[in-house]
Design goal:
Blueprint lengths: L27 H8 L11 E7 L4 H11 L9 E6 L10 H10 L20 H7 L3 E9 L3 H4 L11 H10 L4 E5 L6 H9 L3 E3 L2 H5 L7 E4 L19 H12 L6 E7 L1 H7 L3 H25 L2 E6 L3 E2 L3 E2 L19 H6 L8 H9 L5 H9 L3 H13 L1 E2 L5 E2 L3 E6 L8 E4 L2 H10 L5
Parallel strand pairs: 1-7, 1-8, 2-14, 3-4, 3-7, 4-6, 5-6
Antiparallel strand pairs: 2-13, 8-13, 9-12, 10-11
Helix pairs in contact: 3-16, 9-11, 10-11, 14-15
């Protein structure tokens, strides 16, 4: 069990600057270009790091900035927004959104890198591999989950994770880091060892890897833990996985393509768990820092950052009031799911649990709401969100446009309002590799 009291630390969370005026006049884009002339360079890109904070929209960006109390590392690199609708719905899921981002073609919700007629679609990762580059996938979900899957597999439904796992190896992905060990059979992992992969299973072994060209890290049977709960595990952080992937892939003189997903920002949105969203955003920002640090030294690396859709319809403010109270989320040290799991059968310790993990003293009405709830975890999240004045419209996705950030040579090509199908084509153009 976690310690009931944890050290509270400032969370360096992701925050995007989305102001209407930022696309005209004295724009943030112009300021970023002035500070970084490389962003308007047309030099060939050797490496692409595509970072996807799943479920992250402009409302998340604003709340993160308020939560952090200052700009995120992403803010100076805002270049535009992208549209997210799928082939069969105004509101996409991660499979269709990821397919569009990875292949340049829209498809139906639930489908992994196949068009609506069932034809397999080449992905930007596969195109990079064909051109002699190395490739990697990093995620805090199972590595066979929808977003990482779209870059190196083709299945009719995202639920077929057991079919996705072998395709990651068949498509010669050089670095595979995340959860989902249960989807990799012993025979598959034995074959991977024979093919030259080093295989690790915890944070320490990831730090201790020898020089290798191929790496598999499967750190949990299912998904990795939420960042709020990770300290009681031996799992690496997203930043540690990202840095390890870059270290391995950067040995290839021909360059590399790497996709990094902050998977659980989306899951926090589905749960309406504002604190979980903030903490996983902090973890994602630390990974962004690692990528940007490499890109700034390398000068041949393009970093592109964009969520695939919005989750939960988060708002800044709500509940009939005005303002925001994001700072209280800094003192929340567990997910709603974890707190609910600690409530005893008599429900007599609700106040104690919530106070220990959030710093919030519940009213009698709030205690009764949790007691009577069919889903106590969700009710806990709702109460915390109301205290923080973080609103939600529902527990699914929405169809709002999503911010795009970019740094490095040819970053300016991602500016303006683009389609999610533009990412793969623009990356291929930047790397000067054939793609469709």
């Amino acid at each position: 069990m976690k310690k009931m009291l944890k050290t509270k630390s400032m969370i360096f969370a992701i925050a995007g600057s989305l102001i209407v005026g930022s696309f005209a006049g004295n724009t943030s884009l112009q300021s970023a270009e002035a500070k970084d002339p490389q962003s308007t360079s047309n030099e060939k890109v050797e490496n692409v790091i595509f970072m996807i904070p799943d479920g992250y929209s402009s409302a998340y960006a604003t709340n993160y900035r308020l939560y952090k109390g200052k700009e995120s590392v992403m803010d100076p690199h805002l270049v535009g927004m992208h549209r997210t609708y799928s082939a069969n719905s105004e509101v996409t899921d991660s499979a269709a959104a990821g397919t569009a981002m990875a292949t340049g073609t829209k498809t139906n919700n639930g489908v992994i890198s196949m068009d609506p007629d069932g034809n397999k679609l080449e992905t930007i990762l596969q195109a990079a591999e064909k051109s002699g580059k190395s490739s990697g996938l990093v995620a805090t979900s199972t590595i066979t989950h929808a977003t990482p899957a779209v870059f190196a597999s083709h299945v009719e439904t995202r639920a077929n994770e057991e079919d996705i796992a072998p395709q990651l190896l068949q498509n010669d992905v050089d670095v595979i880091l995340g959860g989902g060990k249960k989807y990799f059979s012993d025979d598959l992992l034995k074959k991977a060892l024979k093919d030259g992969y080093e295989i690790v299973s915890d944070a320490q072994s990831l730090k201790n890897i020898d020089k290798t060209d191929k790496l598999i890290g499967l750190f949990a049977e299912d998904s990795l833990s939420p960042e709020l709960d990770r300290e009681i595990t031996d799992e690496p952080s997203l930043q540690e996985m990202t840095s390890a992937a870059i270290d391995v892939l950067s040995n290839d003189k021909d360059g590399f393509f790497l996709m990094v997903e902050g998977s659980q920002i989306d899951w926090a949105g589905h749960a309406n768990d504002a604190a979980w969203a903030m903490k996983d955003a902090e973890a994602f920002e630390e990974a962004v820092k690692a990528a940007l640090d490499f890109a700034k030294k390398d000068k041949k690396t393009l970093v592109v950052i964009a969520g695939d859709h919005d989750t939960g319809g988060m708002s800044v403010g709500g509940y009939g009031g005005s303002g925001a109270n994001l700072e209280i989320l800094k003192y929340v040290t567990a997910t709603g799911d974890y707190m609910a799991s600690l409530i005893n059968e008599e429900q007599s310790n609700i106040q104690e649990v919530i106070l220990h993990y959030t710093g919030i003293s519940l009213s009698e009405a709030e205690i009764n709401q949790i007691k009577q709830a069919s889903n106590p975890a969700f009710q806990i999240n709702s109460i915390i969100s109301e205290h923080a004045l973080v609103g939600w419209t529902h527990t699914g996705h929405t169809g709002t446009d999503i911010p795009v950030y970019a740094y490095g040579p040819q970053a300016h090509k991602f500016s303006g309002l683009i389609e999610n199908t533009d990412f793969a084509h623009l990356m291929a153009e930047a790397m000067k590799i054939p793609f469709k």
